[in-house]
Amino acid sequence: MFWTILFIILFIAGVVCIAWLVYQKWTELRLLDPASVPVSADKKKKQELIRQRIERTGRKYAIKAQKDVIKPLGGGLQTIFRIIAGKLTAAERRYQQQKHQKAALEGDLRIVDTLLEEAYKFIDEQIWDLAEKKLIQVISLDAHNKDAYEHLGRVYLANKDYESAKETFEYLNKLSVDDPSVIASLGEVAEKLGDTEGCVAYFEKAVELSPKNPKYLDFYLESVIETGDVHTAMNVLDKLIEVNPDNNKIHNFEVRIEDIRKKHKKK
Asked: Which parts of the chain span the membrane according to its record (predicted)?
């Protein structure tokens, strides 16, 4: 009974100490003047801003209280204090995230640009997990950043996470309708997933949108040869020779098409 009462007294004393330290800095909290919020903002928003400021300032002085007051009072109270401090830390993280989001919404793209540069660096170094993390951060700030989605899809492809790559490129295809680069990427994913029919359809669409792109013609020809369609393969090969006559794969394509032709004759 004695220890229970003592514990309660120590707990109350700790809470009072924290309250006193926050009160001492009340003038700092008032730096956030609700009147500075636009007139169109409602009362609830102003209260939320003040609450966040109090949480952040409270965390600062809670740490000081833990060091100077609570630590000497015993382990039980320290445990409770750590729970409180943990919540204040979470509040600080929320504030930082909201600050970054606000910066992006206000047109300050410096954060996004920096994150993209870091992501490209990790991609060049083939550090896929860190590249993915940076790209997801970009998307959390700018949900319509097409470059971020495209590179994220490429990261998933390189990392052989084909389902995630498919979802990423399908969403990007909604943001960039009829973008041959995105459609060709969906063709690559379909090929990895063993969807030959889908693979051919995507590459054919990419060639329709960009008929003189040797990369898309190459992809399309590869997929058509896999289906054994000699007639279509010859037509695509002719277009590839016209667009890129120095392509060192042309001879190999000719040999493969001829092999398919011979197999058809034997049947």
From this structure: 6-23
